[in-house]
Amino acid sequence: MAIKSFLFDQDPKWREHTRGIQYKLPENILSWAYEAGSLTKRLRNYYGNQVAVKILFHHWQTPFLSERRQLQLPLHRYCLIREVMLHNNGKPLLLARTILPEETIKVAHRNLSHLGNRPLGEVIFSYPDLERITMDLTLVRPALWTALARQDTDINQPIWGRRTIYTIKQSPMLVSEFFLPEILAH
């Protein structure tokens, strides 16, 4: 069986964002989870241009079941899966997992499949027709992360994350972002 993720052996359990859920989130998570703009831009506003991308996983693969359901994809549909760590001089700030269906890549004129070390947010927030459709939240226990992910990021506590469906010209992508302890202090 092919590896689906550098970050996870299995999909985290996501909770649909509903009215009132924000009252259950810790204070230091609220502003990050509900950030309407680019998290990359927000990080760069605070840390400057030292915020960089480390690519952890970049492969065509079938997404996890809940991701396929979110994107309404058939069972065996391959998507480009990209996982990255945003860091400040090597200090991990944020982990991200993006599911890009082929149709969305075509609509975006292939810009999304050739990001290299550019952050996704730097690209997608430049599209005038970008829409945010839904958001889910999760709290990932340390044991759910792969050994490599824990080693690379020194994860030893539960990590909050958000998962958002964005569309460009009605073509969806799924972006999951996980807030590491370093950024929660700011």
Q: How many beta-strand runs?
A: 7
Envelope shape = globular
CATH superfamily (homologous) name = Chorismate lyase-like
Q: Give the class from helix and strand content and strand pairing.
A: alpha+beta
Instruction: Report helical residue fraction.
Output: 10-25%
Question: How many helical elements?
Answer: 7
Separation, N- and C-terminal Cα atoms = 40 Å
How many structural domains are formed by the residues? 1
Largest sheet: 7 strands, antiparallel
Strand content: 25-35%
Low-confidence stretches: none
Walk across the major sheet and give the strand order: 1-5-6-7-4-3-2
Supply Rg: 15 Å
The level-1 CATH class: Alpha Beta
The helix/strand order is EHHEHEEHHEHEEH
Integer average pLDDT: 90
CATH topology: Chorismate lyase
CATH architecture: 3-Layer(aba) Sandwich
What does this molecule look like?
This protein is α+β, with helices and mostly antiparallel strands and 186 residues long. It has one domain: Chorismate lyase. The protein is built from seven helices and seven strands. The chain has helices at residues 27-33, 39-47, 65-71, 102-107, 120-124, 147-153, 181-184; strands spanning 15-16, 51-61, 79-88, 91-100, 130-140, 159-168, 171-179. A seven-stranded antiparallel sheet has the order 1-5-6-7-4-3-2. Strand 6 and strand 7 (171-179) form a beta hairpin. It is globular. The mean pLDDT is 90.
List the helices and strands and how they pair.
Elements: E1 15-16, H1 27-33, H2 39-47, E2 51-61, H3 65-71, E3 79-88, E4 91-100, H4 102-107, H5 120-124, E5 130-140, H6 147-153, E6 159-168, E7 171-179, H7 181-184
Antiparallel strand pairs: 1-5, 2-3, 3-4, 4-7, 5-6, 6-7
